């Protein structure tokens, strides 16, 4: 039996690349969705994804990524980047599904001269960075 893996953000750069890489994978059934398929600001829509698919894992690639626009669309940015991610995490836990969330280097302030490590202290400066950091 194939294991179902839900991939959010299917039309984004990472999602499109993953589609190409997984086209010939016969070990898993990848279910690619984008905002046209499920509104991540709607908890019922997110829950429905879990109810209608027996999910082995979720690769949560979707995000509100209009960094500059996020300053004026704070609520929408927070709904997508923070609240939807938290909802997906809770649903993964209750459905015993694995979860991988992709974040951003915007959780750092950019003052470090060398590449950042996941263990470095976060200091997001923008609304976008703050909404991505809250989910850690």
> Could you say which structural class the secondary elements and strand pairing correspond to?
alpha/beta
Total number of strands: 4
| Low-confidence segments | none
Distance between the termini: 33 Å
Biggest sheet strand order reads 2-1-3-4
Q: pLDDT average, as an integer? A: 92
Helix fraction by DSSP (H/I, runs of at least 4): 25-40%
The helix count comes to 4
Instruction: Note the beta-strand portion.
Output: 15-25%
Q: N-to-C SSE series?
A: EHEHEHEH
User: Shape, please?
Assistant: globular
What's the story with the biggest beta sheet? 4 strands, parallel
Radius of gyration: 16 Å
Protein model, in words:
The structure is a single chain. This protein has a four-stranded parallel sheet, with helices on both faces. The chain is globular. It has helices at 13-22, 43-52, 74-94, 127-133, and strands at residues 3-8, 28-32, 55-60, 98-101. Helix 3 runs parallel beside helix 4. 35% of the residues lie in helices and 15% in strands.
Distinctive features:
4 helices, 4 strands, 136 residues, globular, alpha/beta
Chart the SSEs and their pairings.
Elements: E1 3-8, H1 13-22, E2 28-32, H2 43-52, E3 55-60, H3 74-94, E4 98-101, H4 127-133
Parallel strand pairs: 1-2, 1-3, 3-4
């Amino acid at each position: 039996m194939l294991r179902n893996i839900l991939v959010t953000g299917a039309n984004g750069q990472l999602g499109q690349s993953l589609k190409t890489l997984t086209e010939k994978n016969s070990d898993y059934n990848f279910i690619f969705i984008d905002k046209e398929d499920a509104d991540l600001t709607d908890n019922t829509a997110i829950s429905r994804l879990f109810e209608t698919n027996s999910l082995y894992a979720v690769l949560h690639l979707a995000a509100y990524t209009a960094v500059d626009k996020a300053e004026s669309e704070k609520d929408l940015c927070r709904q997508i980047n923070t609240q939807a991610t938290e909802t997906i995490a809770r649903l993964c836990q209750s459905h015993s599904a694995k979860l991988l969330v992709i974040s951003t280097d915007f959780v750092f302030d950019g003052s470090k001269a060398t590449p950042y490590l996941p263990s470095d202290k976060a200091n997001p400066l923008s609304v976008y960075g703050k909404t991505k950091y809250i989910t850690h």
